[in-house]
Specification:
Blueprint lengths: L1 H25 L2 H17 L2 H12 L11 E4 L1 H4 L3 H6 L1 H6 L4 E4 L3 E2 L13 E5 L6 H13 L3 E7 L2 E3 L3 H7 L3 H4 L4 E2 L3 H7 L14 E4 L4 E4 L6 E3 L5 H16 L4 E5 L16 H17 L4 E4 L5 H4 L13 E3 L1 H13 L3 H11 L7 E4 L6 E2 L4 H6 L4 H13 L10 E6 L4 E5 L2 H4 L2 H7 L2 H20 L3 E5 L32 H4 L8 H15 L10 E5 L6 E8 L2 E8 L5 E3 L8 E2 L5 E2 L4 E3 L4 E7 L1
Parallel strand pairs: 1-2, 1-18, 2-5, 5-11, 11-12, 12-13, 13-14, 14-18
Antiparallel strand pairs: 3-4, 6-10, 7-9, 8-9, 15-17, 16-17, 19-20, 20-21, 21-26, 22-25, 23-24
Helix pairs in contact: 1-2, 1-12, 2-11, 14-15, 14-20, 19-20, 20-22
């Protein structure tokens, strides 16, 4: 009885706001009653073990902000083959002291064309190629024992065109046709096209696809086999929420809600970042806090810093717990290629100006490409030509620029606009692959330094770090994708290759490339054990008086930790005004910040107790 009262108490806290928002958006009392029944049913179905986790997390709501948070993202099949085999690889993950594991989409999907799993056929069922729901539940249980929270993608914006809802719609069922945006002629689609940007203008032009079975046009923002859901229909929100709660009860602790800025459609707008999006995310947050407060939301919001704060909501009415830090990732790579940290510093300053409730997952590489969405206004202010700079960056990381150390490929190159994105693993983009091919030991030494510099700077930022699986052993590009007819058309498969277990065996052998990266990642975890990585630490940039050197300061109480990062291949001086006092390195060497000399690609950490 006391347990049920726990749910009733949580629900009472949110009842008025949840019901008001639902009725304001949908004016549908029946839909609200269905939602509330689904919430109660999900709570009753939740295991005692997960309810205990709910209680512990409720007592420690900032658990995901602790300095010991250390994440990794991977594809289940590329790492281990399937979920059962992945569970057997748990010692490898524990060895890295992971606290967070993000598995790329693993719900039932069409094959072979599924956009890397982001075309979902069934939101409640694991893809048979990867295992069963029981395998997933067993994996989450083992991960919890190891102190690792599992994150899964939840695709908010669309379903696969082969989802049962879409199949019913094709068969003429009006109930499920209302789950999508369908039009008998081009009148309304043409109006949308006037204001809605295209996501993939070359590979998937237009925002609508003709469905011959229905003789209707379907809104398809991404690919023609991904049908946009109609969130103006309350049944869509209720059913999608039911699926999230089902996955939460299998032990998923973090949901990366994919493409969330796109989910509400309105004629005459860009169909991005509309107010109703925030109503939906806020309602989802409240549902989780009522049913399973251990579970948190991570938003995928690929927008400028000024657009991000809204997705966190307010301290009184929160939405996402954290977001992907996309823009810093892009600026880190830009700073490395240009040997200039000014754009990176400006972008970090914009992030640091956001409210205190904003929190980020920082990373260098993930399943996706690097899209060169830099701040053009800041570029112009700094005297940088935005178009020429973008072209330089993607040609540099393609390896198609004089003096480039990188080996990568272009993604979505558009000769008409001169736009393109970049693909490749961290190691290959930092020069390791090229150095190994040339058997150049000096070049390899510099490449490893670049790799560790970027990882250290990324791990120093506000938020917590997430590695791309394989980065810890310097995994190189997987060029063999070009021999696979199902993968060859998508250059992102260059960095979506099978995990190299033979290389992983070298991680403990001193002097090997793999050991250097493995030890470098361990040093990141040691760095983040410092009290200055507590959730309430103050983080800011500092003027280093050298555009090639990024200076970051972390302060908590009387303790100050300074990170200096030389993004150039030359020795560099730095001078940090107004940071007086005696600082020392982890080894105990004294450093005077008024005049610091850094080695090429050096990350220097110094600290003082004041």
């Amino acid at each position: 009885m006391a347990v049920k009262q726990e749910f009733a108490s949580r629900f009472a806290k949110h009842k008025d706001e949840l019901e008001w928002l639902f009725m304001e958006l949908y004016h549908n009392r029946e839909g609200l009653e269905v939602l509330e029944r689904e919430m109660a049913d999900a709570y009753n179905a939740r295991s005692a073990e997960l309810k205990a986790l709910d209680k512990a997390r409720s007592a420690d709501p900032e658990w995901y902000k602790r300095g010991n948070m250390f994440g990794m993202t991977m594809y289940t099949d590329l790492f281990a083959g399937n979920l059962k085999e992945l569970a057997k690889k748990l010692p490898y993950l524990k060895e890295q002291k992971l606290t967070y594991l993000h598995l790329m989409p693993l719900l039932q999907m069409p094959h072979p064309h599924n956009d890397g799993g982001y075309a979902v056929e069934d939101f409640d069922t694991v893809d048979p190629a990867l295992g069963t729901n029981k395998d997933l539940e067993n994996l989450t249980r083992e991960l919890r024992k190891a102190g690792i929270s599992l994150c899964l993608d939840f695709v908010m914006n669309h379903t696969a065109s082969t989802h049962r809802w879409a199949m019913a719609a094709k068969a003429g069922d009006p109930w499920f046709q209302a789950y999508y945006h369908l039009y008998e002629d081009r009148t309304i689609p043409d109006q949308y096209e006037q204001t809605v940007p295209q996501v993939f203008p070359n590979t998937a032009p237009g925002n609508f696809t003709w469905c011959e079975e229905m003789h209707k046009w379907v809104l398809t923002t991404f690919h023609d086999y991904q049908w946009d859901l109609n969130y103006a229909n309350p049944a869509v929100f209720v059913d999608m929420t039911k699926s999230i709660l089902h996955l939460a009860n299998l032990g998923v602790e973090v949901f990366r809600i994919d493409a969330v800025p796109y989910i509400w459609k309105q004629l005459g707008t860009t169909c991005r970042n509309l107010p109703q999006v925030h109503t939906i995310v806020r309602m989802l947050r409240m549902v989780l806090e009522c049913v399973c407060p251990a579970v948190i939301l991570k938003g995928e919001v690929v927008m400028a810093p000024k657009e991000l704060a809204a997705y966190f909501g307010t301290p009184e009415k929160p939405e996402c717990h954290m977001l992907y830090n996309v823009s810093t990732m892009v600026n880190l790579w830009g700073a490395l290629a240009s040997r200039d940290t000014r754009l990176l510093k400006a972008q970090l300053d914009a992030l640091h100006a956001l409210p205190d409730n904003c929190w980020f997952v920082n990373y260098l590489r993930c399943h996706d490409d690097i899209g060169w969405g830099l701040d053009e206004a800041v570029e112009k202010r700094l005297g940088i030509d935005p178009q020429k700079h973008k072209e330089y960056l993607y040609h540099f990381y393609e390896g198609n620029f004089p003096g480039s150390w990188a080996k990568g490929e272009l993604y979505n190159y558009d000769p008409a606009t001169g736009d393109a994105r970049s693909c490749g693993t961290t190691a290959s983009l930092c020069g390791i692959e090229q150095a190994l091919e040339k058997d150049d030991k000096t070049a390899l030494d510099y490449a490893v330094k670049r790799d560790l510099l970027l990882h250290t700077a990324m791990a120093f930022l506000q938020g917590f770090p997430m590695l791309n699986c394989g980065d810890e052993i310097a995994q190189l590009n997987g060029w063999d994708y070009k021999n696979d007819p199902d993968r060859v058309e998508d250059s992102r498969n260059l960095h979506r290759s099978k995990f190299n277990w033979e290389d992983a065996k070298q991680r403990t052998r001193k002097g090997t490339l793999q050991n250097k990266l493995w030890q470098g990642m361990e040093q990141l975890r040691q760095m983040r054990a410092d009290p200055c990585f507590a959730p309430d630490a103050w983080v800011t940039t500092w003027d280093s008086h050298n555009p090639g050197v990024l200076a970051l300061v972390r302060k908590r109480g009387e303790e100050t930790l300074v990170g200096l990062f030389n993004f150039t291949e030359y020795p560099a001086g730095a001078s940090l005004d107004a940071l007086g006092g005696e600082y020392h390195t982890p080894e105990g060497t004294s450093v005077w910040l008024a005049d610091v000399e850094l080695e090429p690609y050096q990350a220097l950490l110094v600290k003082t107790n004041k």
